[in-house]
Amino acid sequence: MVQLINVSSADCDICNLPGGTPQGVESLLQRYGLDGIEFMVCDAKDTGLFPRRIVRGIHLWFYPSWMHFWRGNEELLARDYAPEQVRCIFGDSREEWLTRFRDNFRVAGACGAEYAVFHVAHAGQGEIFARNFFYDDRDVVEGTIEVVRELVSALPQECMLLYENLWWPGLTFRDPALAVRLIEETPHERTGFMLDTGHLMNTNWDLRTEEEGVDYVLDTIEGLARCDEELAARIRGLHLHQSLSGAHARTVQEAARRGEMPERPTPHESIDYVLRIDRHAPLHTARAREIVDRVRPQWLVHEFIPTDTTDWEEKLAAQTAAIR
C-alpha cells in the first residue's frame, strides 16, 4: 500500500508546506513515512513543480456545476454563471471545453502518474443550501459517461482512471448499479474507484461519532460487495478523512427552505458552506484501520485541507497513528 498526501499547485497549498516552498514536501513525506503525493495541477506550467518520482496520482479538475453547460440549458446555466464566467470556465462551445479538459487529462502522462481521479457530481450554485436538485444521480452519471468518453483517450493506457464519490448527485455509492454502469461504459481498461470516506459520511446526516462513520463506510462497501464482489474490489484508492457535519447541513437546509439563505450565493458563500460540511478532518479512532484492511487499497491518500504547516502535521500525526 502506497501512502500519500494531497497537494495542489495553488499558492494556498504550497505556503502550508514546510518552509512554504515545494521543496518542503519531501521533509513532510520523510517525517511521516509517506511515499509521495496526489497532485492537482492548476496550470499546465506547474507540472514540474514536484519531482516525478513523488507524483503518484493526479487529481483532475472538477467543475461543481457543469451539467447545464453540457446539456445546453442556457436558462439554468445563467442562474449559476454570468456570461463572462461561462466563457472563462467553459469557453464558447462544448468542443472548446473538452479541449481544455483533455489537456488536463494529459497532465497525468506528463507527470508520470499511476492514477488519475475524476469527480462524478454536479450541484447548481442555487441548489446547494436547500438540496433541491435539478438532476438526479442517474442524470449525472450518464452525463459523466458522455464526457469521459470524449476525454479518456488522452489518458495513458497504463494510468488508472479512478472515479471519486461525492455527496452531491452523481456517484454516491448508495446505488451500486450506477457504479457498475460507470465501469461498464468507460472505454478505458484500467478503471476503478477512489473511495472518499469523508464524502461518503456526508451522505448520512445522522452520523455523530467517528465509530458511526466507520461503520457506515464499512456497511457501504459490503453493499457494493453484495451487488458484486468485483465491484468492491474496484476500490483501488482511499481518500481517508472524516466529516461529521450532518447537523450543520440539516440546519442550513431548513433555513434555506424558510427563505433565509441566498438563492444565488456568491463564490465565497458557496466555498464557506462546502468547507463547513466537507471538513477533511483526520480519523483518530483505531477502527479506521478496519476500512484500510477491508479495502486493501493500492493508494491511500491522507486528504486534508490544512490551515498552516502545524495544522497539516497535527492531522497527519493523528491519522497515521490511527491506522497504525
From TrEMBL:
Xylose isomerase-like TIM barrel domain ranges (all copies): 94-283
One example GO MF annotation: endonuclease activity
InterPro entries linked: Xyl_isomerase-like_sf (IPR036237), Xyl_isomerase-like_TIM-brl (IPR013022)
Keyword annotations from UniProtKB, A to Z: Endonuclease, Hydrolase, Nuclease
Gene3D superfamilies cross-referenced by the UniProt entry: Divalent-metal-dependent TIM barrel enzymes
The keyword Hydrolase is annotated on this UniProt entry: yes
SUPFAM superfamilies in alphabetical order: Xylose isomerase-like
Keyword Hydrolase: yes
Listed Pfam families: AP_endonuc_2 (PF01261)
Name under which the protein is recorded: AP endonuclease, family 2
UniProt source species: Selenomonas artemidis F0399
